[in-house]
Specification:
single chain, 169 residues, mainly beta, three-stranded antiparallel beta sheet, 1 helix, 12 strands, 10% helix
Amino acid sequence: MKYLKWIPLLLIMCIIIPFNLLGQGKNTASANIHISIVKALQISQVQGNLTFADLVQTGVSTSIGRTPDKGILFEVNGNSGRNITLDFENTTLNNVTGNKSLNFIPEVSQTKNNTSYINPTPVLNGSSHKLEDINGTGYLYVWVGGKMDVDRNLPVGDYSGEFSVTVSY
């Protein structure tokens, strides 16, 4: 009987002690969350072409070209004030009747948000440029010309290829 007095005390201790050991308090960790919502980035050809006139071979190597203002005008639009990156490369023009090719070396300029070829700035492959605001949308006008060095021994025929420019935020 003398042990019966201890049973309630032991039961209480069995309940209280584990809760104290397990209840170590709260630990909290946090992390910042961020997202930027931007307008879709688009590029489209507005005007011009890179079709060159016939070149008459005279047995002399020559260079033929077109300045950017006489080539193609691309319009880039997206989130105003954001920087975009322009990527492009030389283009290989293949002879459709043979296995010879010709290298087109692009010359690229930009005129910010101006559709006229005024105060152009040269553009290097991989360079970054800011989209300038017009009524809440960012614009950049990109002008493409270029040149080809035509070897005097290059076979006659039509040469064609496709110039690509990629834009990204």
